[in-house]
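Example record used in the benchmark description.
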Amino acid sequence: MNEEGYLALIMDLIPQHYKNLGLPPSFESCTRDTFTESFTLPIAHIGKIVNQMQDVFNHLHENQVSHGDLYAHNILFDQQANIIFGDFGVATMQHMLSDLQQVKIKQIEQRALSYLIDDLLGVCVEYDQNSEPYNDLQQYAASLR
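Model output (structure tokens):
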């Protein structure tokens, strides 16, 4: 869209092979991600998803945008763990905020990412749970808090 005074994001249609990573929240789980009962991911896929999410947040923050709703149900993924991050309904532009306010918002979103990592590690396949990449992601999540 290129109309003066309007900001818009136009995206291609999402391929049908993408699925929601998580379930919509409930009153019991509103601050944590939930997944179907039998859902699991190998650590390689979890790592790839985390790396892509970090890239997304770096891009958004470099452009002074806050997403404000980081949950697994706002992430679509495919069999190769490629993601599409959506639901920008509460996203905000930060350009009118002070530097300190922008830093604080970034910290909040980093904390949300740390919880996403914890939740993804909770659905990690059992044979990967004592691996070095698993431990590295645990440490990374802790460093974001």
